[in-house]
Records
---
Amino acid sequence: MALPSYTETRYRVWHYIYITICTFVFIFLIAPLFVIFPLSFNAEEFLVFSEGMKNLDPDAFSLRWYNDMIYGTKNPWGLAAKNSFIIAIFATIGSIILGTLAALGLSSRHMPYKGLIMATLISPMIVPLIISGVAIFFFMAKAGLAATHTGIVLAHIILGTPFVVITVTATLSGFDHSVTRAAASLGSNPVNTFMKITLPLILPGVISGGLFAFVTSFDEVVVVLFLAGLENTTIPIQMWTGLREQLSPTILAVATCLIILSTLILISAELLRRRSERLRGINR
Amino acid sequence: MSSETKQILTTDGIPLEVSLKKAEKKNKIKAFLLVAPLLLFLIITYIFPIGDMFMRSVDDKMITNMLPKTFKAMEKWENLDELPPEEVFSAFYFDFKLLVKKQEQGKLGQRLNKEKNGFNSITKKLLRQIKRKKIDENANIKEQLMKVHKRWRSVEYWQAIKRTAPPYTMAKYLKGMDMYFAPDGSIAQVDEDRRIHRILWLRTLEIAFFVTLFCFFMGYPIAHLLATLPMKYSNLLMICVLLPFWTSLLVRTASWMILLQQQGLVNDFFVMIGLVSDDNRPEMMYNKVGTYVAMTQILLPFMVLPLYSVMKTISPSLMRAGKSLGGTPFVAFWKVYFPLTIPGIGAGCLLVFILAIGYYITPALVGGASGTLISNQIAFHMKTTLDWSFASAMGLMLLTGVLVIYWIYNKLVGVDNIKLG
């Protein structure tokens, strides 16, 4: 963004003000995540940078909170992590299957009442979580699924499908339907066509929708707060209770792990997005 | 002429038109069958339960079911300014006796007490009389009941019972707006110092509005920068937007709790540059400031991403054309670039506003008492007071607001144009 040499001074000044504003906004966005990192290695129990840390004294840093996270008896982080992963994986699978099928139907130009149905399918993403939480809780309580893994998985499928529907519909919008017709004319049955032709082409969209569904489930706390019993505690629930009661450095250790996880997810989502753009480029 | 033209037939002898229609219908069914599993799943587990919330919010059948004979007898009570006839008294007595047998008279007392103060004690008194078998069922029950407590002689209490007769009520919705049904059936406002819900609604709107505004003023410049920088730089900066977007909400809230605490880095910084003195550090958490700062940072990516995707499509030559036609950069920006970004602004602002208006987690953690929103009140009634019908009513009021915005969003942007990542 080099300025042309003929730029007047006042625009030059304005340009630097603009760059400064942008810098501050970027710092505002990203800096909070980096505070957690060093503090999770704090040797002391307080959530402020100790003198030793400011002087980079090696004794001021320790892994004790990571130790506490894994072996600590007070916090059932192990159980929470296990539950979180199980619930998120099943919710993702459910969301992918239901969402992809629906997206396939919605992308067909024969679909009746497309707008209305799309709006309905997306609604769990728009409706405030607290309302979804109350409604789903009423249903699960009636169905006898409150405080069970099944109930939470179903709830997270509800919340996760809109993302799959959106990403897969977006991928299908650039999809050339003549390839499936070509497959059909060559004698392939619909299921075979889907598995061999359609699915590989829309796979990036499916996986990135799945990533959204996974993160939604993995990070979801409002609905789980209504549904979970002691046995179904998840990482977000543990963090929520921890943050409400006492902000302990162990939470920061967990938070650091979560940031690493989200970085990994971000990288895979970006790679997928690029691959998807490339694939769709070929189709055009 | 048309009737005489030979119909085009397919190879199996069916008119082409019919055959096409049939194929069309088949395709429609096929498309619908693909959507059906998800649609059915959502209707059962999500749409119906929201309807169930509505039923709960207006449900007032408890007393209707508890006092069936009384309400039947009350149909004959004509002059409402006078005490009801003997039938009503005796019907009420037998209804009440049945409740005593089921040990549900306490619930009745509590519910009636909400309608009119003083019911709790007189139902308890009646219970004692029944247990001591003081009431002779063959004699005039009206007179005996009136002797139990002087309030049974007051017509106001009987009017209160009659008011509870309809099986549905809008009372919970009125309560959500700090109003109630006055004894004469009109709608009245609660006392000024007890209007907590209206404050909460206004605060929710205020916070959602300002968070949207802050997000817009912060998001617009960086979306512009991201869209105009060469790819290799913008991809790097994009991470600053996407990493918070993918990071757990609780992690981000936790980091703000650390930053904003009294001994936190933000306060350290203020002390360092001499803005505040060390022993007078301002409280930035557990109040509105905390809610504003944290919510703005958390929702900022939802503003930047739609803006970015719109700005990306605006050709830079348009600005150059504007300038070459004699506009200063400011004029060119305002007259050419800005109007082109309006779809992105609409999408971003509506999305942030919708998300902010229903926010729960962050205000609950950093908001304290003065930074909580309507969602926190709903959760409070769900988990603490267990007044589920009131929580449902408030939830549906919030939902109505959100759906109106969603509808506008759908008209302006279209749900199928939502972009993620």
Note: The first helix of chain A runs from residue 9 to 39.
---
Amino acid sequence: MTAAAETQAVERRQHSLTLYAGAVLVGIHVVIALLTLVWLPYDPSAMAGGRLEPPSWLHWVGTDRLGRDLFTQLMIGSRIALMVGVGAVAIGAVIGVTLGLLAAFASRWLDDALAATLDILIAFPTLLIAMLVVAASDTASLSTAIVALGIALSAIVARLTRILAKRVLLMDYITAARTSGTSWLGIVLIHVLPNIWPTLSVNFALQFGLAVIAEASLSYLGLGAPPPNASWGRLLQEAQGTVYTAPIGAIAPGVALVSLVIGMNLLADGLREAIDPTRQAR
Amino acid sequence: MSALLDVHRLTIRTGTTTLVRDLSFQTASGERVGLIGESGSGKSLTALAATGLLPAGLVAEGSVELAGQQVIGTPDNQLDQLRGTAAAIVFQEPLTALDPLKRVGRQVAEPLSRRARRDGRPLSGTALDGAVLALLDEVALSDPTRIARAYPHELSGGQRQRIAIAMALACRPDLLIADEPTTALDVTTQAEILNLLDRLVRERNMALLFISHDLPVVANTVERVVVLRKGEAVETGPVATVFGAPQHDYTRSLLAAARSFDDALEGRS
């Protein structure tokens, strides 16, 4: 093995380490979320012990001010966070990619109109758009929050898709495919989507983190999933009053939130290295 | 013999700038025509206009008939049926003409299976794989099985151009448009690709529209030339006549430039 090949091998191992670390972090949350469907240590809405108990063997991260087991609520929080992330990104991706491709292929004025609309939407913070959508639907529920975040994310996805697709459409291989008789739909499916997918999927993973944080913020403001859905944001909000006497109540949901978001970001990085054949083979 | 490609008074403009003016020429089936001129003379635009694929913002006027079908003003979905079958293009830069994220075998398979579908004899699975390998073999790529599995960046420039040619051939076009197919290649590879094109065009009895700024290359490849200058045809005729007794100053200056370059290469001055 030459020296150059050796460096490449080391580099490749580092990439897979990123992927591995991300997969483990996200995997823990996925396993916990699946576990909550069949088993919970305690009833999440019943008193399981004294109020504001410190961590113990019975209550791994203690209890809240109503005596409910915090770890149980964190586990449910994992499920909610994953549902929000997957749901919001799926909605954002479908709307965003469709709009973005439409803009990229559209006539000049429609493209300009779409691009301007997207720019205006992006000027609003994701959270603000989501709050507006929740307010407009006048019931705060988990599904409303997911739809709201999905719509808010779609503008970012659409703009990215539009730019990426436009860049691909300028490439010679698109002209070559057109001259050999590939239809526009064929161009999208065979060339455009596969070529923008690596960048998009990395972006989706980042959006996933954004959505999870935004949902926590919505819940913190009381606009997210209502009780008994123990969103991490609501746990943080409930722990706010007792943050000096029982800091674990605020720290634990914070750590859960950060670990999932970092996990997703690491996974995104690792995935990008893994899917891109030009990097892989080098 | 009817003309496969009949360009009549073609004018291409963007805004107020005219890029190609009043260009007329024909390519009969089986005929090899060269389109020469310096860069920016509208050669490549003419090739794109022939298949109705001018970039947005460019407007074509006049008439371009491809296999008897008017191209200018015809909607894209109708032209899709014509593209590939009537004409296919090989581009100048083989790296960008291939999708970087697809194994080249699959890229060749794409037009191959489309043509088979059009002919009503769909190809798939091992039959398609076999046809791909046969085509790679036909463009003289050694070890087709290995190459079919490679990504474009894993191949050399010459190999990529052979793949691009294979993709054009996969369409089984009546007219092959080669837009500076050898410009991005080194001299040895250039000669190989030219021989390959020459052989394939003869074997398959295709018409060839060869676009180049390189006089010797054009002279050896085609029967008839159209000399373009700033979007206008200044001279048209058989290779021997145009290059042997150039009528127009511009053709003469092109010839002189090519000659002095050759002289410089051979150490004369």
Note: Residues 40 and 161 of chain B are 23 Å apart (CA to CA).
